[in-house]
Amino acid sequence: MATVKDKPRGSFDFLLAMDCETTGLCLNQDSPVENPKTGERHQAVSWGLIVADAATLKPIEKMYVELKWNEKSKKQREANAKWGTHAEKIHGLTYEYLEKNGITEEEAVAEIGSMVLKYWGPTVSIRTLGHNVHTFDLMFFRDLFRRQGIELTFGSRHYDTNSIAFATFGTFNSDDFFEQVGFEKRAEHNALTDAEQALEATRRVRKIFQGAIS
């Protein structure tokens, strides 16, 4: 279990690198998950999660899950045949595919929760890393667990590769940033690949910076 005893103030042992693909997002809202005025609500349909060593930024354990649509999502598609189709074009995970191959949100929470407990236990706060992680992925992560009656504990510090990218390379999106640090151009987005590249990109930028100042 993670501990910060006998280490510098604010240090921690593990990072949770994450990325999700979703049915869409609510624009210009406090949370991309829900628009309280219209009732529109979105969910994650896949998760890529990596437990990483905070000191080395090397992966320790990985998980990838694909989720079926919940009842709220299904009702929104029934009311509007185009609902969620824009996101499907980005990640390729159609409703029909997920209905056949995905697991339920309850099953996903059980699988993900088991990995979280393994490294953070029930009380140690989780620090996350990803592209727009604090304003997007973490919002969907909290929502998934909260709707199952589970409140996870997160630290106040999260590590956003979008900010790193803008400061170092002047890029505005993950595709351009990942290409700048040496990854091949992507076609469809995949949550685990995106989490892997966000983590590795952070490691490469750190290595470049440390080499420059030494």
Topology:
Layout: E1 14-22, E2 44-53, E3 59-66, H1 71-79, H2 85-91, H3 95-101, H4 105-120, E4 128-130, H5 133-146, E5 159-160, H6 161-168, H7 174-180, H8 191-213
Parallel strand pairs: 1-4, 4-5
Antiparallel strand pairs: 1-2, 2-3
Short overview:
This protein is α/β, with parallel strands linked by helices and 214 residues long.
What brief labels describe this structure?
alpha/beta; 43% helix; 5 strands; Nucleotidyltransferase, domain 5; single chain; 8 helices; 214 residues
**Overall pLDDT:** 92
Order of helices and strands: EEEHHHHEHEHHH
Could you tell me the radius of gyration in angstroms? 18 Å
Q: Count of DSSP E strands?
A: 5
Number of domains: 1
Q: What is the overall shape?
A: globular
Alpha plus pi helix count: 8
Largest sheet: 5 strands, mixed
The order of strands across the largest sheet is 3-2-1-4-5
CATH class: Alpha Beta
CATH architecture term: 2-Layer Sandwich
Question: In percent terms, what proportion of residues is strand?
Answer: 5-15%
Low-confidence stretches: none
Tell me the structural class: alpha/beta
Measured between the Cα atoms of the first and last residue, the distance is: 34 Å
Helix content: 40-55%
CATH topology: Nucleotidyltransferase, domain 5
Which superfamily, in CATH terms, is the homologous superfamily? Ribonuclease H-like superfamily/Ribonuclease H
